[in-house]
Design a protein that fits this description.
Blueprint lengths: L7 H12 L2 H4 L2 H15 L8 H7 L14 H18 L7 E4 L8 E4 L11 H7 L2 H6 L1 H8 L16 H27 L11 H7 L12 E6 L4 H14 L6 E2 L16 E8 L6 E7 L5 E7 L9 H10 L7 H9 L4 H14 L3 H16 L5 H17 L9 H14 L4 H13 L3 H14 L4 H12 L4 H14 L5 H14 L2 H9 L8 H13 L3 H14 L1 H5 L1 H7 L4 H13 L7
Parallel strand pairs: 3-4, 3-5
Antiparallel strand pairs: 1-2, 5-6, 6-7
Helix pairs in contact: 1-3, 3-5, 8-9, 11-12, 14-15, 15-16, 16-17, 16-18, 17-18, 18-19, 18-20, 19-20, 20-21, 20-22, 21-22, 22-23, 23-24, 24-25, 27-28
């Protein structure tokens, strides 16, 4: 029997929780696109959800938009589907309504997330066959335990005319059981790792034949398993291997997680499975937790997407969404509350760049500083500490109280010494040189970081950003723009760089769209200035007036003389002049 679709209020409530979630907190573009699609469909305008209208309404494209040459809508829709899968498999697993964007179109679909209880099934095999995809994929261990748990009291099937309230009551009853079973399993697997005791259990130590205890001072361990035949699957696996080998934020093992692995590290171990896709020639990439079997990401690549010359770009997008500190792996470990000291600090570091405030900066800085003070040898930690130290100088944070460019440069130099092949170390050194006005050196180091790992869109973004702020707008803007479009979960400094590049190229519509994405971050003078300029470009006079007032109240020194700030930040002279002129037209800055 077909069930009626969820009521509009339930859809809206789910949408608001989803938009406010941590999964979507990193992506303004994904939030904007999802809200647009759902609101238009709910308003009865599903027929308007075409590529051209989405490109114009959401991404600021003009009437000349050509979907055959500009893939922004297809790319962002693909990223949105990935984020929806991730949300409903993790923090949104208990949502009463599931929202999806079916492939082949942009019209959202909705379904009640009703979970069948064991009493509904006539047999164990029937229960497994009827299990909802979200639960079956997201927590296979827990649901298998639930299906076979003899002590569970059977629940009679609901009548066909049951209300949404009654369905939700059954749903939450099921969720209590699932959570209880999953909690037991997690406790059994995690006794060796939690409670502040990094010690292994006697059982684990006995199995290993040694009294050695895990130090829990490592990065996530990544395995790869090729479980599909054919040239397409081999190319996908090869691209993943090449990309994973270049990331500083993980320890790449390069093989399957077989029985010879160190099982004490399973809570921070993950496997990229390359398996056959649903159609002939398709290849599916699934990222799973070794400890729980939880699927963090499932991405299907068609034969066209795994073709030579294309597969690298798709692998870069996939890895950038999962492997860095901003990705799904670190997020999963953080939510599981099982982390190493390095992972915990890198999570705090990433949170600073999402919410650039003195509070988040100090938390991240103190954490990294403590590890370095304890003698932790990691070029990644030194690189991130160098960048945070520079942030303290440029943003005038109170901590550390003695922040200087020289100290930041010393930390960056140490990072390069410790990791001569580290992309993060080279990027940090390039960033420092950019701040010192050493344009050529900055570009050289950032280019090297990009070359060391072209699969990390963060390195591509940094290189494009560096080119833009070296005055090479025509070179840097396309590189940064590609990174922004390929990775929806990017930090806001990418959007600021894209605003500057598009602004200086004369693409005012793209500049206005990029500036709009800055509204989700902490208040900064140059971000507010960009938003003010973008509002004036878009003809939003009321918003421009509000932003001008906010800029004057919150940053009176900047509002009186924005040129001084741009000069202090080593902006190119032509960029400084254009920004100052635009702000002056908005009533910001001295007319002299």
């Amino acid at each position: 029997m077909e069930h009626a679709p969820p009521a509009a209020p339930a859809v809206r409530e789910t949408l608001e929780r989803l938009l406010a979630s941590e999964t979507f907190g990193r992506s303004e573009r994904a939030r904007r696109l999802l809200r647009y699609l759902v609101e238009r469909e709910q308003a009865g305008e599903a027929d308007r959800l075409k590529g051209v209208s989405i490109a114009m309404d959401v991404f600021g494209k003009d009437g000349d938009f050509d979907a055959s040459t500009d893939a922004v809508v297809r790319v962002q829709a693909g990223r949105l589907r990935e984020l929806l899968e991730q949300y409903f498999a993790n923090e949104g697993i208990g949502e009463p309504v599931r929202i999806a964007i079916p492939r082949g179109g942009y019209v959202p679909s909705y379904e009640l997330n009703a979970i069948r209880l064991p009493g509904d099934a006539k047999s164990v095999s029937g229960t497994v066959a009827q299990r909802p995809a979200a639960l079956a994929e997201a927590a296979p261990v827990a649901t298998e335990h639930l299906d076979n748990h003899a002590a569970v009291e059977p629940v009679a099937p609901a009548a066909p005319a049951q209300s949404l309230t009654r369905q939700l009551r059954f749903f939450w009853a099921a969720m209590v059981l699932v959570i209880a079973m999953l909690g037991v399993l997690i406790l059994r697997q995690s006794n060796a790792f939690l409670g502040g005791g990094m010690a292994a259990t006697a059982e684990t130590a006995g199995a290993a034949g040694t009294a050695a205890q895990p130090t829990f001072d490592s990065l996530p361990l990544i395995y790869i398993a090729l479980k599909a035949d054919g040239a397409d699957a081999a190319r996908v696996a090869s691209a993943l291997r090449a990309g994973l080998a270049g990331f500083d934020t993980i320890d790449f093992i390069g093989r399957d997680a077989d029985s010879t692995r160190d099982k004490s590290a399973d809570p921070i171990s993950f496997v990229f499975y390359v398996v056959p896709g649903p159609a002939a020639g398709d290849v599916r990439v699934e990222l799973q937790s070794v400890a729980t079997g939880r699927v963090l990401l499932s991405r299907n690549l068609t034969s066209a997407e795994s073709a030579p010359g294309v597969v690298e770009s798709n692998a870069a997008s996939l890895l950038t969404s999962t492997v860095p500190a901003s990705g799904a792996i670190y997020s999963y470990i953080d939510q599981s509350d099982v982390r190493t000291s390095q992972i915990g600090c890198l999570v705090l570091d990433d949170r600073y760049y999402l919410d650039q405030s003195a509070k988040t900066h100090e938390a991240a800085y103190r954490c990294l500083e403590k590890l370095v003070g304890e003698g932790t040898k990691s070029s990644l930690l030194y690189a991130e500490l160098a960048s945070l130290h520079l942030e303290a100088v440029t943003s005038h944070y109170a901590y550390p109280p003695d922040a200087t460019l020289e100290k930041a440069m010393s930390l960056a130099h140490r990072a390069v010494q410790m990791g001569p092949m580290s992309p993060h170390a080279h990027r940090a050194f390039g960033y420092l040189n950019s701040r010192l006005g050493n344009t050529d050196e900055a570009i050289r180091w950032m280019r090297k970081a990009y070359e060391l790992n072209p699969y990390d869109l963060g390195m591509a973004a940094a290189y494009g950003y560096g080119l833009i702020f070296a005055g090479k707008y025509d070179e840097g803007t396309p590189i940064l723009g590609h990174a922004v479009e390929a990775f929806s979960g990017h930090p806001t400094w990418w959007d600021y760089g894209l605003f500057v590049g598009a602004f200086m190229q004369g693409d005012m519509k793209k500049a206005a769209v990029a500036s709009e994405s800055l509204r989700t971050t902490a208040s900064k003078s140059h971000y507010l200035a960009a938003r003010l300029i973008g509002a004036r470009i878009s003809g939003r006079a009321k918003l421009a007036s509000e932003l001008a007032n906010e800029l004057t109240v919150e940053f009176p020194k900047f509002a009186a003389d924005p040129r001084a700030t741009f000069v202090d930040r080593k902006y190119p002279a032509d960029l400084t002049d254009r920004l100052v002129q635009s702000l002056r037209e908005a009533g910001i800055g001295n007319p002299s």
